[in-house]
Amino acid sequence: MLDPVQKLKGKNIKKQAKKEQKIKERARKMWKMYGFCGMLIFHNANGIQSAIQSWQMEGFKVAFVPTMGALHEGHLALVKRAAHLPQVRVVCSIFVNPTQFNDPADLRAYPRNPARDLHLLSEQGLADALFQPEIDEVYPPEQPCMTFSFGALEEVMEGAMRPGHFAGVGQVVARLLHLVQADYLLLGEKDYQQFLVVRDLLRQLRDEQLRLREQHLRLQDKHKPFEPDEPTWQKIPELIMGTTHRDEGGLALSSRNQRLSSEGRLKARQIYAALQHARRRWTHESPDETVQKILLMLAEVPEFRVEYIQLADSDTLAAVREWGNHSSVRIFAAVWIEGVRLIDNTVVFP
Question: Domain 255-349's class?
Answer without folding.
Answer: alpha beta
